[in-house]
Amino acid sequence: MNKLVEALLVFVAIVVVLLGAIFIMAGDSADMLTGAVLVVIAVMMFAFIYRVEKIAATKPTLVNQTFNVKMDGSGKFEDKEMKCRSCGAPLVDKDLKVVQGGIMVTCSYCGATYAMEEAPKW
């Protein structure tokens, strides 16, 4: 629910409760009945607002985060052409997938699938 609409409903419910209390304090039986009805209406409004907020709190929210990360290595970086282990065909970026933290390669020429292993840095 929109926060402005929620605030407006809370304000109206408070006014209705106060008006109901004034009618109840008036003392006449008809006025007391009117005041009780107003108080019940206000309580129902508060319950409605609470329920709507509780439902809204359970819905997942999409959070978009962007990071500017610059990666520097301790050694010299050089580009290497990746080749398939089975047929020797060149591999491109679309052939790589990250699966459970590891890099899986599927050759687009021969269809071979294997996990890519990173060579040690030393």
Description:
By secondary structure, this protein is mainly α. It has 2 helices and 3 strands; from the N terminus they run H-H-E-E-E. The protein has helices at 3-26, 29-58, and strands at residues 96-99, 102-106, 113-115. The radius of gyration is 33 Å and the shape is rod-shaped. The two termini are 58 Å apart.
Q: Features of this protein?
A:
122 residues; mainly alpha; 2 domains; three-stranded antiparallel β-sheet; 3 strands; 44% helix
Q: What is the arithmetic mean of pLDDT?
A: 85
List segments where confidence is low: pLDDT < 50 over at least 5 consecutive residues.
none
How many discrete structural domains? 2
Biggest sheet details: 3 strands, antiparallel
**Strand coverage percent:** 5-15%
What's the alpha carbon Rg, rounded to whole Å? 33 Å
Q: Structural class, from helix and strand content?
A: mainly alpha
Q: Ends: how far apart?
A: 58 Å
- The protein's oligomeric status is single chain
Helix count from the secondary structure assignment: 2
Q: What is the topology, as strand order, of the major beta sheet?
A: 1-2-3
DSSP, total strands = 3
